[in-house]
Fold this sequence. Notes:
This protein is an all-alpha fold. It has helices spanning about 5-15, 25-30, 40-45, 65-75, 90-100, 110-125, 130-140, 145-170. The mean pLDDT is about 95.
Amino acid sequence: xxxIVEEQWSVFLRHWDVSRxxxxxxxxxVTAEPDRHDWRVVDAxxxxxxxxxxxxxxxxxxxxxxxxxxxHGFRYAAIETDRPGVRLGNEHAIRVNVSVVRRPQVxxxxxxxxxxxxxxxxxxxxxxxxxxxxxxxxxxxRSPQAQKHILIxxxxxxxxxxxxxxxRRSSK
Length: 172
Ligand SMILES: [Zn+2]
């Protein structure tokens, strides 16, 4: 999961020719101006800062930490750029899912489960429609605990199949 943001951070370090011992200083600069950077870089920067209130990685602390809440809100000022060939809004979906999975304590278990299972599908460029997302959250609510995981996986696989078919049709 962290690899999604770490890769971009490494590229960023190389681009600015910053050595690893200057990382924290760079992270402070990035998080001071989140609207000037890609969200993956901003999220990775937060990981490098320690929260002065709770001592966790900044923005990833417990529900009650106001400093983390504040930082968590700032991260959404960052830039999202859809990768070529993916559905519009795919990058936004990835960043929301990554953000929920990396700070699961502020979200319901059901939602964390759905978002975690959806990520691989989003990373290959799919994007569930609003109806599909609603069906999925209804499904996770009514499924018995023991079968939740498998039922959600099946629903997601179905969405991916559907979108692959639609893509093939549109490219003919
Ligand atoms: Zn905190």
